[in-house]
Task: structure prediction
Amino acid sequence: MDIEQAFGIVIKKYRLERSISQEKLAFGASLDRTFISLLERGKRKPTINTLFSISEVLEVKPSKIIQDIETLIQTNKKLF
Result:
């Protein structure tokens, strides 16, 4: 599993736990909804600014998202 795929899985997990649509996440983070979809599918590489914007909307520390990505890559397990 690569970093982009892991990032997508992690942000989708948090988004669904909070019952936030891709559209609402995109709007809150000043991003396009299609970009959120591409991120969740591991098709785009997020910038540090994107990570911080998304984490603010999801109310999760950026460091927690990175920690979850590291865990997912190291254990290669599925979160859902």
User: Anything to note?
Assistant: Residues 33 and 57 are 14 Å apart (CA to CA). The chain has a mean pLDDT of 94.
